[in-house]
Amino acid sequence: MAGLVRRDTFADLVASLRRDLEMFRSAAEPFGGLETITAQKSDWLPAADVLTKGDDLILRMELPGIDPERDIEITVENGMLRIHGQRREKKEEEDRGYIRRETSYGSFERVLRVPSDIKAEDLKANYSNGILEVVVPKAVKRSTQRVPVLTENKGE
Q: Which pTM value belongs to this model?
Protein backbone atom coordinates (compact mmCIF):
# COMPACT_ATOMS: atom_id res chain seq x y z
CA MET A 1 0.00 0.00 0.00
CA ALA A 2 1.42 3.35 -1.05
CA GLY A 3 1.55 6.12 1.49
CA LEU A 4 0.94 9.80 1.00
CA VAL A 5 3.92 11.88 0.05
CA ARG A 6 4.08 15.42 1.28
CA ARG A 7 5.13 17.87 -1.43
CA ASP A 8 6.66 21.25 -0.91
CA THR A 9 5.08 23.33 -3.69
CA PHE A 10 7.37 26.28 -3.01
CA ALA A 11 10.46 24.08 -3.35
CA ASP A 12 9.01 22.63 -6.57
CA LEU A 13 8.46 26.14 -7.92
CA VAL A 14 12.00 27.22 -7.03
CA ALA A 15 13.43 24.08 -8.67
CA SER A 16 11.37 24.73 -11.81
CA LEU A 17 12.53 28.35 -11.99
CA ARG A 18 16.15 27.26 -11.58
CA ARG A 19 15.80 24.73 -14.42
CA ASP A 20 14.23 27.40 -16.67
CA LEU A 21 16.96 29.91 -15.83
CA GLU A 22 19.68 27.34 -16.48
CA MET A 23 18.11 26.46 -19.85
CA PHE A 24 18.01 30.17 -20.74
CA ARG A 25 21.64 30.61 -19.71
CA SER A 26 22.67 27.53 -21.69
CA ALA A 27 21.03 28.90 -24.85
CA ALA A 28 22.94 32.17 -24.51
CA GLU A 29 26.26 30.58 -23.51
CA PRO A 30 27.75 30.35 -27.05
CA PHE A 31 27.48 34.15 -27.21
CA GLY A 32 29.13 34.84 -23.88
CA GLY A 33 25.91 34.58 -21.86
CA LEU A 34 23.06 36.91 -21.18
CA GLU A 35 23.94 39.24 -18.37
CA THR A 36 21.01 40.74 -16.57
CA ILE A 37 21.63 43.90 -14.61
CA THR A 38 20.71 43.54 -10.95
CA ALA A 39 17.27 44.36 -9.65
CA GLN A 40 18.70 47.52 -8.09
CA LYS A 41 18.91 49.00 -11.59
CA SER A 42 15.74 47.40 -12.99
CA ASP A 43 12.23 47.93 -11.70
CA TRP A 44 10.96 45.05 -13.83
CA LEU A 45 12.49 42.53 -16.17
CA PRO A 46 10.61 41.77 -19.39
CA ALA A 47 10.70 38.25 -20.79
CA ALA A 48 13.45 37.72 -23.38
CA ASP A 49 14.43 34.96 -25.80
CA VAL A 50 17.88 34.55 -27.35
CA LEU A 51 18.08 32.41 -30.48
CA THR A 52 19.99 31.99 -33.68
CA LYS A 53 18.80 31.99 -37.27
CA GLY A 54 21.51 31.08 -39.72
CA ASP A 55 24.54 33.14 -38.67
CA ASP A 56 22.41 35.80 -36.96
CA LEU A 57 21.83 36.21 -33.24
CA ILE A 58 18.28 37.29 -32.41
CA LEU A 59 17.06 38.78 -29.14
CA ARG A 60 13.27 39.04 -28.67
CA MET A 61 11.73 40.85 -25.73
CA GLU A 62 8.10 41.13 -24.68
CA LEU A 63 7.46 44.85 -24.26
CA PRO A 64 3.72 45.47 -24.59
CA GLY A 65 2.52 48.99 -23.93
CA ILE A 66 5.86 50.60 -24.78
CA ASP A 67 6.35 53.47 -27.19
CA PRO A 68 9.52 52.20 -28.91
CA GLU A 69 10.56 55.60 -30.24
CA ARG A 70 10.32 57.25 -26.85
CA ASP A 71 10.89 54.49 -24.32
CA ILE A 72 13.59 52.16 -25.73
CA GLU A 73 17.31 52.81 -26.18
CA ILE A 74 19.57 50.25 -27.85
CA THR A 75 23.34 50.73 -27.74
CA VAL A 76 26.43 48.66 -28.55
CA GLU A 77 29.75 49.33 -26.87
CA ASN A 78 32.80 47.16 -26.18
CA GLY A 79 31.09 43.95 -27.27
CA MET A 80 27.99 44.56 -25.17
CA LEU A 81 24.49 45.05 -26.62
CA ARG A 82 22.47 47.08 -24.11
CA ILE A 83 18.70 47.46 -24.29
CA HIS A 84 17.39 50.00 -21.82
CA GLY A 85 13.89 51.34 -21.53
CA GLN A 86 10.88 51.94 -19.41
CA ARG A 87 7.18 51.35 -19.36
CA ARG A 88 5.30 54.40 -18.24
CA GLU A 89 2.27 54.04 -16.02
CA LYS A 90 -0.97 55.39 -17.39
CA LYS A 91 -3.03 57.15 -14.74
CA GLU A 92 -6.66 56.15 -14.61
CA GLU A 93 -9.34 57.40 -12.29
CA GLU A 94 -12.67 55.85 -11.56
CA ASP A 95 -15.44 57.28 -9.41
CA ARG A 96 -16.82 53.93 -8.21
CA GLY A 97 -15.15 50.67 -7.50
CA TYR A 98 -11.55 49.68 -7.77
CA ILE A 99 -9.01 49.46 -10.53
CA ARG A 100 -6.79 46.41 -10.47
CA ARG A 101 -3.49 46.49 -12.34
CA GLU A 102 -1.14 43.57 -12.66
CA THR A 103 1.16 45.14 -15.25
CA SER A 104 4.69 45.99 -14.16
CA TYR A 105 5.92 49.53 -14.72
CA GLY A 106 9.31 51.14 -14.47
CA SER A 107 12.70 50.88 -16.07
CA PHE A 108 14.50 47.79 -17.31
CA GLU A 109 17.88 46.92 -18.75
CA ARG A 110 19.18 43.81 -20.49
CA VAL A 111 22.78 43.34 -21.62
CA LEU A 112 23.99 40.69 -24.05
CA ARG A 113 27.59 39.96 -24.97
CA VAL A 114 28.10 40.14 -28.76
CA PRO A 115 31.22 39.99 -30.94
CA SER A 116 33.35 43.05 -30.25
CA ASP A 117 33.46 44.10 -33.91
CA ILE A 118 29.65 44.54 -34.12
CA LYS A 119 28.63 48.15 -34.69
CA ALA A 120 25.26 49.78 -33.94
CA GLU A 121 24.64 50.37 -37.66
CA ASP A 122 24.91 46.59 -38.22
CA LEU A 123 21.93 45.90 -35.96
CA LYS A 124 18.33 45.69 -37.09
CA ALA A 125 15.60 46.42 -34.55
CA ASN A 126 11.88 45.98 -35.10
CA TYR A 127 8.95 46.52 -32.73
CA SER A 128 5.64 44.91 -33.62
CA ASN A 129 2.65 43.80 -31.55
CA GLY A 130 4.49 44.38 -28.27
CA ILE A 131 7.57 42.38 -29.27
CA LEU A 132 10.99 43.98 -29.76
CA GLU A 133 13.27 41.95 -32.04
CA VAL A 134 16.94 42.89 -32.34
CA VAL A 135 18.97 41.06 -35.00
CA VAL A 136 22.75 40.96 -34.73
CA PRO A 137 23.81 39.83 -38.21
CA LYS A 138 26.58 37.28 -38.61
CA ALA A 139 27.20 37.09 -34.88
CA VAL A 140 27.61 33.33 -35.06
CA LYS A 141 30.96 32.37 -36.51
CA ARG A 142 30.79 29.06 -38.36
CA SER A 143 34.45 28.70 -39.16
CA THR A 144 35.61 25.40 -37.77
CA GLN A 145 39.22 24.43 -38.09
CA ARG A 146 40.58 21.02 -37.34
CA VAL A 147 43.52 20.90 -34.98
CA PRO A 148 45.90 18.05 -35.80
CA VAL A 149 46.93 15.76 -32.98
CA LEU A 150 50.63 15.02 -33.03
CA THR A 151 51.79 11.69 -31.74
CA GLU A 152 55.20 10.45 -30.82
CA ASN A 153 56.13 7.21 -32.51
CA LYS A 154 57.71 5.18 -29.75
CA GLY A 155 60.20 2.58 -30.80
CA GLU A 156 61.01 4.10 -34.17
A: 0.59
